[in-house]
Write a structure and sequence with these properties.
The complex is a heterodimer. Chain A is mostly helical. Chain A contains 3 helices and no strands. Helix content of chain B is 85%, strand content 0%. Classes of the chains: A mainly alpha, B mainly alpha.
């Protein structure tokens, strides 16, 4: 009798697990959605900044032909 | 492959140390930028650029790479996995992004740092270059703090891949349980 009870319990449990698995479909967590929206806004902002002439890595790069020492010697002459 | 507890603890210790040190070194970089911006003395400006270049190459970049590497090892060597949980995946993406931007920005810092070491540097250009460094280090610090928050809180949420793997594992477990009972 005990064995039969255990068996029926196991069957019930496995059936309920299958049912709950069928019911629960995949959902993206809310915090991921919020973080995604923030990232999207930031990416758009960066894109706007880049269109305005801001080029990462190349901004404020000094050119070799316009050094202060060269300017000073020119003024001195 | 799951790491043994002793190995996991050592890797975790290195990972936490590198990650926290990365934040600390970015703070030091940011402090140099702010000091140079608010000082009229050219000596402070030159010293800041030289220090920023050295701190960048010899402290921040190695710490960033070490943090990324140990993070990947930790994810692959524990139950978390690299693509199963959103907090791990987002941390990984943000760390790769931060490291990439850091190395790219270091090219600019390198040029200015070397210029500050030479005789007759362009003070106006060096001063103008600080705005970009304030933006980079400020945003970098914000990203690192987000990564730290994710690593501390570990917010729940499986990725679609992680969810599928979990379903497969549950099914397998049920099959094993039913075969053992019968």
């Amino acid at each position: 009798v005990k064995k039969a009870n255990i068996e029926s319990r196991r069957k019930k449990m496995s059936q309920s697990q299958i049912e709950t698995d069928k019911e629960t479909s995949y959902k993206t967590p809310t915090w991921v959605k919020i973080l995604g929206i923030i990232t999207l806004v930031l990416v758009i902002l960066v894109a706007i900044l880049m269109q305005g002439g801001h080029n990462p890595g190349l901004h404020n790069m000094p050119s070799a032909d316009t050094s202060l020492s060269a300017e000073v010697t020119e003024v001195g002459e | 492959m799951i790491m043994r507890p002793a190995v996991r603890k050592i890797v975790l210790m290195i990972h936490v140390t590198c990650s926290v040190a990365w934040i600390g070194s970015v703070l030091a970089f940011l402090a140099l930028v702010i000091i140079a911006m608010n000082s009229s003395a050219s000596a402070n400006l030159l010293a800041s650029w030289i220090s920023m270049r050295l701190i960048g190459w010899y402290v921040i970049v190695p710490l960033a790479l070490a943090s990324l590497l140990t993070g990947i090892i930790m994810a692959l060597g524990t139950k978390w996995g690299l693509f199963r949980h959103y907090w791990v995946l987002i941390s990984l993406v943000l760390t790769i992004l931060a490291t990439f931007v850091l190395i790219e920005n270091m090219q600019t810092v390198n040029v200015f740092g070397l210029m500050a070491e030479t005789e007759g540097p362009e003070l106006m250009r060096l001063r103008a270059g600080l705005n970009s460094e304030l933006l980079h280090s400020g945003l970098g610090l914000a990203v690192l703090l987000v990564i730290q928050w994710l690593n501390m809180v570990k917010p729940r949420g499986l990725t679609p891949y992680g969810w599928r793997r979990q379903q497969e594992e549950r099914k397998l477990q049920r099959v094993v349980e039913s075969s053992l009972s019968s």
